[in-house]
Amino acid sequence: MKRIRSPSPVTSSKTASNSQHQAKKTHAVESPFPNFAHPTLAEAYEVHQILSRAHPAHGAVRRPPTTSRNSAQTCGNVPNVVEALIGVILSQNTSGRNSASAKTSLDAAFGRNNFAAIASAPRADVVEAIRHGGLANKKAATIQNILTSIKEKHGEYSLQHLAETDAPKRMSDEAIMQELISYDGVGPKTASCVLLFCLGRDSFAVDTHVYRLSKLLGWVPEKADRVRAQAHLDLRISAELKYGLHVLMMQHGRSCKGCKKTGTEAACVLKAHLQERRCAQDSAGRQGL
Ligand SMILES: [Zn+2]
């Protein structure tokens, strides 16, 4: 029996649970680090500006979902919610090229969005279809289990009720998040990608690049794991910056050699920014300001 938590605010004691299962499912309406006051609004805007200048082709215009996209390569940038979810699952722990190829091969094997066929197929057939994407056994199990749960809960292989845009059927971001993470194998990052790229909501997905850069920038405590970092940042970063910052930080994380490795001489606009800020603080300190 799946439990969907109420979208109403929960107390911080709930979000601070230490168990791994809870940590995976933790999506907070209160930061797990309530006393950590970064990033400020100004800090987030500043980094958005710096990255916009460094990567002008990214993040400026929000791309609405279309059926012409491969959901695994685009973090779920398609209109069908179940297809978006499967795409994001396929994209976990692999390159865009491999996950795109796994999605193409899944479509070829079962028919695009033929979720009934995927759900009822022998596990080995699904594993074979997505083997280009890595972790095929785990991902096949996750996908088949989610499809079965969706059918049990809603009577059909569809989550399009999450895409309703008009009142009174339109759901809150938090209610959508809670429904998505109620499915086994769907964590807050996967759910956040579906919110951001499929449903057009403002949600701050923290993947491996965003996580690394957030630590570099001092936006999350050193001890923060990726899930808690997302819970913190989703609350600290203003809605209008979430899409742009996510896309820009992903792009920077993928392309910049200067902050990928320690000890490199390669230039990095974020490292230069941090250096400048440290110098300004030092000089203010020397002047007794
Ligand atoms: Zn960099």
Strand and helix layout:
Elements: H1 12-15, H2 20-25, H3 41-54, H4 81-90, H5 96-110, H6 115-120, H7 123-129, H8 136-154, H9 173-181, H10 188-198, H11 208-216, H12 226-236, H13 239-255, H14 269-286
Helix pairs in contact: 3-13, 4-8, 4-10, 7-8, 9-10, 11-13
Bound molecules: zinc ion.
Zinc ion (ZN) is lined by residues 252, 256, 258-259, 268, 270.
List keywords for this structure.
289 residues, mainly alpha, Endonuclease Iii, domain 2, Endonuclease III, domain 1, 2 domains, globular, disordered N terminus, binds zinc ion, HhH_base_excis_C, DNA_glycosylase
Query: How many domains would you count in the coordinates?
Result: 2
CATH class of the largest domain: Mainly Alpha
Radius of gyration: 20 Å
Can you tell me the overall shape? globular
Structural description of this entry:
The chain is an all-alpha fold. The chain has 2 domains: 29-62 and 203-286, Endonuclease Iii, domain 2 (Orthogonal Bundle); 81-198, Hypothetical protein, domain 2 (Endonuclease III, domain 1, Orthogonal Bundle). The chain is built from 14 helices and no strands. The radius of gyration is 20 Å and the shape is globular. The protein binds zinc ion. Zinc ion is lined by residues 252, 256, 258-259, 268, 270. Residues 8-21, 65-75 have a biased composition (Polar residues).
